[in-house]
Design brief:
heterodimer, A: 157 residues, alpha/beta, Rossmann fold, four-stranded parallel β-sheet, 6 helices, globular, B: 674 residues, FAD/NAD(P)-binding domain, 5 domains, five-stranded mixed β-sheet, 35 strands, 24% strand, binds flavin-adenine dinucleotide, binds iron/sulfur cluster, binds FE2/S2 (inorganic) cluster
Chain lengths: 157, 674
């Protein structure tokens, strides 16, 4: 871990609430660290756990999953499915030796730009404390598959 | 700054356009550098041209893209500018004009997600590169798509029969289209029906409202369901199927003539908490007020002696047309509509919550709605402004503004109408009782047409204004002259002194709040509420009556506190939006849909229960799953779940997301972002 380690976090947002929260944070000029890079999905229910593994295996130090609050999903109840998958995924990650804090789930409504910015800030700090994940390297030294990229894609949903 | 590269065999030809947005982006991101970088570093990824421009969304900016598509034969376009929620359509349309399928264009945000939220120019510039790299990788995997065309059903559902809903319904019906109006109470009219006079013109509320209500009741194109609620909404824009619960009225609408004899004969008096705000009585069988539309009464079952004790039936005995029917049951009716307008209005802030003002404890503290009923000629006192004892005229009256509004302990927002309503009350008290009137205000807000003139008028009438937030209303007399009075304790911030002002009557200008069931209603119709609980509009300035959900519109106080003119304007605006849709006959929807590759589907049925829209069907004979594209809304949950990878989703495919991850993390590049 270096002194000035800047973590890279991939964030998944849903199109209806959390992406709009990110837009609102912008419109309101709320500040948060630049370490997060967002990917827009239609719904948190679209989040295939493989996306998370892929991101971590490709060099991200953390993944933030966001969506509408329970009961407010644009597609009615799909974020409950995201929640179920998230809980399962976290267990799997722990078994793989990855700190659970590297993958977080945050609900943010379209009105919660400030909240989303706060959660991003907190997460960046938490991952900074954890240090780099370096999963691809870590895997190689553990004697697993030669290419992390392929390894991740083989994990089924 | 422009970089052009030679296209490479077998690769997409990608154009990258980086927007300055004036200084909005360029102030925090080195836009020229980013464009140059994209031209050089993303050359191997297929970028044949990279440009930056002051305003990409301007017609000149769009022309840049169009010309490049035509002259350089671009097969993909990536714009890095503002949020796709703002301009995705703009750039897609520009591409389409130049002959490129619109879905081969992608917009990534470096404004809302970069320049506006970060403070370090170097880091913001590096992040912009990552965002662009991610976008380029993603857009390579885009596919040409055609929008889904869905027909629009001509009928509209209007929920809530206040002034906003009434206006919306009449506009649509007058234009010749069918409207279903659903109102929860026995009559339409909403809050406005409770008022005596309306600011700023002081015209009588009933005189202007009643004709509108009658028009709704008699309009051949409006089917009115009162004493009813929406219980279920299926489908999507153009084709909603709505289930309405028509509660049993116990009065046969075919036979009832609205003569009112049942109400006269009913022996059971009930305090009217809604229309009379608890100040007056109604019967167990009632219409809330004489001008009610429709004219048919309802029997209030929990208060009806027959329903509770098994005997009475006075109404049935006296009804000249045998319209009373104790066997009636709730009916469930389904209607098909293309669009829905929600106009369910507001609830009054519960003044009991500000305990120091004594409402509910001190008899002569009134709420604003109570005062409306007191001052109403058709109200419980026939318009006499008297104390709770029903006879004594007040000598001094205090009107407290901003009760529950602009208050960290309750609601932060301004309820908009309370200043004007407080002035209206001051005028009415002054005119009818000659009492001394005090208005206690934090700030006087009288924006809009003819409002400040009304303020001046009330000032000239001699109403006294004290600037300051009232600390307490008490009946504990301390000084001579306070005996038997209500004392208003306030810091007069203009005079810089504490004052105790004895009055006989206090009126609380309680704020407006979202309906208590606003969250449930929002959920039922698939829209969202702001943190305060008001329904969220699609855009606060440019699209105030649409919502994020196609086909669902909002009008009036559901969207936020407002006066009658604004509520009416929104009702009309919402119906204009709907009319536009109906006249088009169809709407083009994003082709974001899931589909199953039957050859890959193992028939495991894992996806079968995941779809809330019942779009997933299983063919028992062939043991494969199929998705009905008309029902699929494109959330992608099933795509994520299929262990065989048999389901794919357009616009957000696995390939697109994987590629974007690679791009964002710089895996496809030689050098790291810097
Ligand atoms: C004391 C007071 C005085 C005022 N005086 C003035 C004035 O003088 N001038 C002025 O311009 N403005 C005045 N206003 C503001 C005015 O009341 C509003 O601007 C106006 O009534 C808003 O109309 P609306 O149709 O949006 O809502 P509402 O009047 O609240 O109507 C909503 C309707 O929807 C129905 N409804 C609610 N939920 C459901 C549901 N789930 N299903 C079916 N139906 C439902 C309700 O029963 C109601 O009929 C005053 C407000 C107050 C509190
Ligand atoms: S989850 Fe996939 S394999 Fe299973 S039934 Fe659905 S489409 Fe077929
Ligand atoms: S993508 Fe969503 S809406 Fe479409 S079929 Fe799958 S689960 Fe249903
Ligand atoms: S749309 Fe936001 S979580 Fe489903």
């Amino acid at each position: 871990m270096t002194e000035n380690f800047e973590p890279v976090i991939i964030g998944f947002t849903c199109n209806w609430c959390s992406y709009r929260a990110a837009d609102l944070a912008g419109t309101a000029r709320v500040k948060y660290p630049p370490n997060i890079r967002l990917i827009r999905l239609m719904c948190s229910g679209r989040l295939d756990p493989t996306f998370v593994l892929k991101a971590l295996a490709s060099g991200a130090d953390g993944v933030l999953i966001t969506g509408c609050h329970p009961g407010e999903c644009h597609y009615l109840e799909q974020n409950y499915k995201a929640l179920r998958r998230f809980l399962l995924l976290r267990r799997t990650l722990v078994q793989m030796g990855i700190e659970p804090d590297r993958v977080r789930l945050v609900w943010a409504s379209a009105a919660e730009g400030v909240r989303l910015a706060e959660e991003i800030t907190k997460m960046v700090e938490a991952v900074r404390q954890l240090g780099p994940l370096n999963w691809p390297k870590w895997q190689q030294t553990n004697g697993h598959g030669e290419h992390a990229h392929i390894e991740a894609e083989e994990v089924s949903a | 700054m422009t970089t052009e590269n030679k296209p490479q065999e077998g690769q997409e030809r990608i154009g990258v356009y980086v927007c300055h947005c004036g200084s909005n982006i360029a102030g925090m991101v080195d836009v020229e550098h980013v464009a140059k970088w994209a031209g050089e570093e993303l050359k191997d990824r297929g970028v044949v041209v990279a440009r930056d421009y002051k305003f990409m969304c301007s017609s000149l900016g769009q022309e840049l893209i169009e010309n490049d598509i035509k002259e350089l034969g671009l097969t993909r376009v990536l714009v890095a500018a503002c949020s796709p929620h703002l301009h995705e359509q703009t750039f897609r349309t520009a591409s389409a004009r130049a002959g490129l399928n619109p879905y081969l264009t992608e917009l990534v945000s470096i404004r809302e997600q970069v320049s506006w939220v970060h403070t370090d120019k170097q880091a913001a510039t590096a992040k912009s590169k990552a965002v662009i790299s991610g976008g380029v990788e993603r857009v390579i995997h885009h596919e040409p798509l055609e929008p889904l065309v869905v027909p629009i059903h001509e009928a509209t559902l209007v929920v809530g029969g206040g002034i906003a809903g009434i206006q919306a319904a009449l506009e649509l019906a007058d234009a010749g289209y069918p409207v279903y109006m659903v109102e929860r109470e026995p009559s339409i009219g909403g809050h406005m029906a409770q008022f005596d006079k309306t600011f700023p013109t002081l015209d009588c509320a009933a005189c202007i409202l009643t004709p509108r209500m009658v028009s709704v009741g008699m309009h051949p194109n409006i089917k009115l369901f009162t004493w009813s609620e929406v219980t279920k909404v299926d489908g999507y824009v153009g084709n909603f199927t709505v289930t309405i619960r028509k509660k049993a009225r116990y009065v046969n609408e075919e036979l009832c003539t609205g003569c009112g004899i049942c109400q006269e004969k009913c022996p059971k008096k009930v305090i009217d908490e809604i229309y009379e705000a608890g100040l007056g009585y109604r019967k167990a069988v009632y219409t809330p007020f004489p001008q009610a539309v429709p004219k048919f009464p309802v029997i209030d079952r929990p208060n009806c002696t027959y329903f509770q004790k098994g005997t009475c039936k006075a109404c049935e005995k006296f009804c000249p047309t045998n319209a009373i029917d104790f066997t009636q049951e709730d009916e469930y009716i389904t209607v098909e509509v293309g669009n829905i307008i929600l106009a369910t209005g507001y609830d009054l802030f519960d003044a009991r919550r500000v305990t120091q003002y004594g409402y509910g404890r001190l008899a002569n503290v009134f709420t604003s709605i109570e005062f409306e009923r007191l001052s109403n000629a058709a109200g419980p006192t026939n318009g006499e402004i008297v104390l709770r004892d029903g006879v004594t005229k007040p000598d001094a009256v205090g009107i407290i503004h901003c009760v529950g509004s602009r208050d960290r302990n309750f609601n932060n927002y301004c309820s908009v109408i309370c200043c004007m309503q407080g002035l209206k009350f001051a005028h009415l008290v002054h005119e009818r009782t000659g009492a001394t009137v005090y208005n206690f205000y934090i700030d006087m807000r009288t924006a809009y047409k003819a409002y400040d003139e009304f303020y001046q008028r009330v000032l000239e009438e001699g109403t006294l204004f004290v600037r300051g937030k009232v600390a307490e209303v008490t009946d504990a007399a301390r000084l001579p002259g306070e005996e038997g009075k209500l004392i208003i304790q306030v810091e007069d911030t203009l005079a810089g002194i504490q004052r105790r002002i004895p009055v006989d009557m206090v009126i609380l200008s309680a704020g407006l709040e979202p309906r208590r069931d606003a969250k449930e209603v929002a959920k039922l119709f698939g829209i969202s509420c702001s943190a305060d609980g008001w329904f969220i509009e699609k855009h606060p300035k440019l699209d105030p009556v649409a919502t994020m959900t196609e086909g669902i519109f909002i009008a009036g106080c559901v969207q936020g506190p407002k006066d009658i003119p604004s509520s009416v304007a929104q009702g009309a605006a919402a119906s204009a939006r709907v009319l536009g849709r109906i006249r088009q006959g169809h709407i083009e929807l994003e082709p974001v849909r899931a589909s199953v590759d039957e050859a890959k589907c193992s028939g495991c049925r894992i996806c079968n229960n995941l779809c809330p829209f019942n779009a997933i069907i299983f063919h028992e004979d062939r043991m494969v799953t199929e998705i009905n594209p008309a029902l699929c809304q494109g959330c992608g949950t099933c795509v994520a779940a299929c262990p065989a990878g048999a389901i794919s989703g357009t616009v957000f495919s696995n390939e697109q997301i994987f590629a974007q991850i690679d791009g964002l993390l710089g895996l496809t590049l030689e050098h790291a972002f810097s």
